[in-house]
């Protein structure tokens, strides 16, 4: 069976970065570019027209910036996963994008395989953070409150591991659960915690102090 086709729109105003993205995607038959835009207004229009699975967007763009674009896109019915592309580790801007509904961040200097992995992980509903950004982004989130008292130990472990950036397969290996079971648990936790996606659940893990032991 062929791999699932991932429909991608990307928004980037730098022609050199656009060329690089096309080069990265050339050996990836499971990812189809269905549109590209050079500003946030055009990107929103493309998303509404093409209904992609993933939107890869520069966080700093003309028109709607990446945060505003993320906010507008995630308010659409059945929105795509929004993955932000950034040149600089601006912690404030990244946190704003997470709260707006972005599923994660990649750096423009990340290797091609990391970009492809990030797009595929976003398609699968997993949180995506470039390894170069994990420490600066997630550890900068202040602890706001303890976790809800009705969460069970297994649920807290799941949230903690999502907060560490692990995917469903890796979490399953840690907790001796199948990836399918992990996906089911995480989906329920998203609903229970009011999280739009795994990236927002990861933020809650850090706000609640559920960091790696």
From TrEMBL:
Sites where 4-aspartylphosphate occurs are at 58
CDD domains cross-referenced by the UniProt entry? REC_NarL-like
Q: Which GO terms describe its biological process?
A: phosphorelay signal transduction system; regulation of DNA-templated transcription
**Per the UniProt entry, what species is this protein from, by scientific name?**
Tessaracoccus bendigoensis DSM 12906
**Which Pfam family, any one of them, does this sequence belong to?**
Response_reg
**Domain Response regulatory positions:** 7-123
Sorted alphabetically, the keyword list is: DNA-binding, Phosphoprotein, Transcription, Transcription regulation
What does UniProt list as this organism's lineage?
A: Bacteria, Bacillati, Actinomycetota, Actinomycetes, Propionibacteriales
Does the entry feature the keyword Cell division, yes or no?
Answer: no
Q: Does the keyword Oxidoreductase apply?
A: no
Its transmembrane ranges are none
| Gene3D superfamilies for this protein | 3.40.50.2300
The name on file for this protein is: DNA-binding response regulator, NarL/FixJ family, contains REC and HTH domains
Looking at the record, the residues that make up the HTH luxR-type domain are: 147-209
Q: Which GO terms describe its molecular function?
A: DNA binding
